[in-house]
Amino acid sequence: MDNPAADGRGDAVRLVSVRKVYGGASNGVVALAGLTIGFRQGSFTAVMGPSGSGKTTLLLTAAGLVRPTSGSVVVDGRELAGLSETALAKLRRERIGFVFQAFNLLPALTVEQNVTLPLRLAGRRPSRARVVQVIGRVGLAGRRGDRPGVLSGGQQQRVAIARALVTQPAVIFADEPTGALDSGAARGVLGLLRESVRAAGQTVVMVTHDPLAASHADRVVFLADGQLIGELEQPTAGAVAERMLRLGAWAERPRQPKWSTAGGAG
Asked: How far is CA 87 from the centre of its chain?
C-alpha cells in the first residue's frame, strides 16, 4: 500500500489527505475521508469498492472536475489547488483523457470528427498523421468517415478511447468503460487501455465493479467509506472477487452517521 509519508516521485497522479464533503455543516456527506493514494506513471490501476465508497468522487477529484474540501491533488506535476478554472480546463484538455460508460459521441459527426473534437475545442489543428495513427490503433482505420449510429457499442467505445488518446495525455481516467459492452467488446476495450500503458507509458485509472475487468490492471485498490482499505498487485479475477466479497461484509457493519468526520460516502 502507498506510504503516506512518501514524496510521490514517480506518480502521475497523487492525492494527499484529500477530504471531500458534499453539503453543509449540518447535513454534510463525507465522500473522501482524508485519502492518500498515488498512481504511478505508466501504470494501470483499477479502483473498486461498495456503492458509496467514494470511487467516483476519487476519479472526479483526481481529474480536477471536483475540487476537494481539503488536501492536495497533483496531476502530471501540477498542484491543482493553485490553478485557476481556466488553467485547470487547459490541463484537462491537454494532459488528461476521459473514457466513460456512456460513449458521449456526437451523432452528427464522423468517427474522425469525434476523435479530433478535443483538439479543435482547444484551438489546435489536428495532425492528420496523428489522427490516422490513433484511429488505426483502436482498430477503426476503415471507419473514419462513419457516424456513431452505424457502429456497435464496442466500436463506439473505441472511438471514445481514440478521442482520449489523440491529445497524448499523461493520464486517462475511465469510469466503468466496459459497463455497457458485451464480454468480447469489453476485452477489446480493456486491451486498448492496457496497450496505451505498455506502448505509450500513459497512466490509466479505471473505476469498475467488474472483477474480470479489474484483472486487466497492474493493481487494484479498494475503497470503503472514502478510505483506502487494501490493494492487490497483479490481480486475478478470482482474487478480486474474493476481496469484494469481504468488502461486502465490511459494508454491512454498523456505521457512524454519514456526517461524522470519521465516516464517508460518495
From this structure: 20
% of the chain beyond a pLDDT of 90: 70
Taking a C-beta distance cutoff of 8 angstroms, is the pair 41, 203 a contact? yes
262 within some domain = no
Model confidence at 38: pLDDT above 80? yes
Q: Domain tally for the chain?
A: 1
At 59 the pLDDT is 95
Helix or strand or coil: residue 92?
Answer: helix
In-domain check, residue 4: no
Note whether residue 258 is domain-resident: no
Q: Are 157 and 185 in contact (CB under 8 A)?
A: yes
29 sits in which H/E element:
strand 29-40
| pTM for this predicted structure | 0.86
What is the arrangement of strands in the sheet containing 29-40, beginning at the earlier edge strand?
29-40, 11-22, 70-75, 78-79
Cell numbers at 90, concatenated? 487547459
Q: What sign does the CA torsion over 250, 252, 256, 257 have?
A: positive
Find out whether 71 and 17 touch, Cβ atoms under 8 Å: yes
Give the phi and the psi of residue 261 in degrees, each rounded to 5.
-70, -15
